[in-house]
Amino acid sequence: MASPGIFEEAHVSAQLSTLSRIPTTWGDEVRELARQANAVILAHNYQVPEIQDIAHHTGDSLALSRIAAASDADVIVFCGVHFMAETAKILAPERTVLIPDANAGCSLADSITADQLRDWKSEHPDAVVVSYVNTTAAVKALTDICCTSSNAVEVVESIPADREVLFLPDQFLGAHVRRVTGRKNLHIWMGECHVHAGINGDELAARARGRQPGRRAVRPPRMRLRDLRALPGRRGPGAG
């Protein structure tokens, strides 16, 4: 028969375990609610630090969707924009996916609708549709190949040279792919992310030289060509 001391020790241990889960801040409260719901909290790199601090995982949209698919959580809380949550649902259809802000949109994803893509495809019925991952689920459903910024060139190069390609929705990434591949039958949708469109290469280059003399910048391909050329350094595409 177990001694009373063992029961007392177990009781104290249970109390300490309970106390350790009592929320002391709003972040603790969110984490505790997530634990109770068996939820995983994902925060995009663009989120403010306070949101990233309480997330279980941070990263770019595609990496987070892959984490969501591999997770054993019942609920996925995606702190990002609509297309990110939709992508997570595509990769993990049996999970409940929640987005905290119903109005969170992406100007790039919103730059083409499913109806617009249908009309574009009707003008090029034999073309292969290549969509950047930053698109809505409705647009992805009409897509032949979905790419990231890091594999867009490789994806287009894998398509037979005699096939037309419809590349969407990022005009700057499309221009980068056309420039690298030299492909003449690559048609580009004129969509853009308002943040990337607002980047001024000359201004950034001047700031970089002033703050970090001699340093070289890593330049994303989702910028205007003239702004890419203005920045010293090399191109380094992101994952998504």
Your description of this structure?
By secondary structure, the protein is an alpha/beta fold. It folds into 2 domains: 4-98, 3-Layer(aba) Sandwich (Rossmann fold), CATH 3.40.50; 106-240, NadA-like (Rossmann fold, 3-Layer(aba) Sandwich). Helix content is 45%, strand content 16%. It is built from 12 helices and 10 strands. The strands form 3 sheets. It has a 4-stranded parallel beta sheet with strand order 2-1-3-4, with helices on both faces. Strands 6-5-7-8 form a 4-stranded parallel beta sheet. Strand 1 (39-44), helix 3 (49-54) and strand 2 (57-59) form a beta-alpha-beta unit.
Layout: helices, strands, pairs:
Blueprint: H1 4-20, H2 26-37, E1 39-44, H3 49-54, E2 57-59, H4 61-70, E3 75-79, H5 82-91, E4 96-98, H6 114-123, E5 128-132, H7 137-140, E6 145-147, H8 152-157, E7 165-168, H9 171-181, E8 186-188, H10 194-197, H11 201-211, E9 217-219, H12 225-230, E10 233-235
Parallel strand pairs: 1-2, 1-3, 3-4, 5-6, 5-7, 7-8, 9-10
Q: Which bin fits the share of residues in helices?
A: 40-55%
Whole-number tally of structural domains: 2
* Molecular shape: globular
CATH classification class of the largest domain: Alpha Beta
The SSE order reads HHEHEHEHEHEHEHEHEHHEHE
Whole-Å distance between the termini? 61 Å
From the helix content, strand content and strand pairing, which structural class follows?
alpha/beta
**What kind of oligomer do you see?**
single chain
Which band does the percent of strand residues land in?
15-25%
List keywords for this structure.
2 domains; Rossmann fold; about 240 residues; disordered C terminus; 4-stranded parallel beta sheet; alpha/beta; single chain
